[in-house]
Amino acid sequence: MRGAEASEYLRATDAWFARHGLTYFVPEERAAVRRALRPSRTALPLLLGLVVAAALGALLGWATGDAGTGVALLLTVAGLGVAWYALTALRFRPILGWALGRTFGSMARLLPMVLRALPLLLVFATFLFVNADVWQMAARLETGLLWLTGLLFGCSAIAFLLVRLPEEVDRVDDDVDAAFLIRACAGTPLERPCAELVAEAGSGRPESATQAATDPASYATISGLERWNLVLALLVIQAVQVLLLALAVFVFFVVFGALVMGNDVQLGWTQLPSIHSLSWLPSVSVELVRVSVFLAAFSLLYVTVSTVTDETYRAQFFGTVLRELERAVGMRAVYLALRDRASAS
């Protein structure tokens, strides 16, 4: 394969990577992200974000008289600032867009998967819902503390995924061979170069006597920003699925509580002087909503852990994206081998 022809394949693959949420696989994009991660670039936005978050949190805490609300707003605004910097300077927007499109574009598979997992989750969570101690604790939480509790569960779930998902990515590149590469590159711009490179590596005879046969499988190990590209895409996909389940849990307990938990029962379980029912929906109380929010946030953390550690949940939630991981790892190996071949020509 001539150098000019290889360059055409590389350019087409760069465009393919960009369309499929593999931004950090493109050398130019990866270099830009490394520059954006330098302390000299991140220090000022981080400082400004903290100042704005602290000011808004202090203002809200003073206006409401609830310090917990101020702290919750501070953390939320700080998190939104980090997300904005990731979407812009760190080129996370294409990764997010692809992951969301990949998730919601397969609703025919996503909804049955959520519905299969939901009954098991509800059996577990219902034991907490019909527990007076849970009602006494959750119903008495101030808005700020409930907000902070939700943030705690959500951040714990994200932290757990950021620790465990790299392990899932590392498993994919352990057994890369010729068949793996050909399967991964099928239907992509690298289909033909992959077949040629694999054939050369198998025969040990490169197309030119001045070159060595390049084995694409030797480039399979993935690391650095490219590894984190896959981890972040998986994080978004898993987060959307878990959030859908948590939302379903919230709706179920609000409806279930409105049907079977009368105001007298809620008053007895919470031991509050009165129950604050919604004027436009008398069967739903503020206390019922708080308990449902608390259990939904708790279920979010529970399902997040289960999707990675429990084989039943893992097969349902994680198995659907394994093919995407394999394709990314295989294409990257062929891409790097082809790039080295082009630079040596």
UniProtKB/TrEMBL annotation:
<keyword id="KW-0472">Membrane</keyword>
<feature type="transmembrane region" description="Helical">
    <location>
        <begin position="280"/>
        <end position="305"/>
    </location>
</feature>
<keyword id="KW-0812">Transmembrane</keyword>
<feature type="transmembrane region" description="Helical">
    <location>
        <begin position="71"/>
        <end position="92"/>
    </location>
</feature>
<feature type="transmembrane region" description="Helical">
    <location>
        <begin position="144"/>
        <end position="163"/>
    </location>
</feature>
<keyword id="KW-1133">Transmembrane helix</keyword>
<feature type="transmembrane region" description="Helical">
    <location>
        <begin position="230"/>
        <end position="260"/>
    </location>
</feature>
<feature type="transmembrane region" description="Helical">
    <location>
        <begin position="44"/>
        <end position="65"/>
    </location>
</feature>
<feature type="transmembrane region" description="Helical">
    <location>
        <begin position="113"/>
        <end position="132"/>
    </location>
</feature>
<protein>
    <recommendedName>
        <fullName>Integral membrane protein</fullName>
    </recommendedName>
</protein>
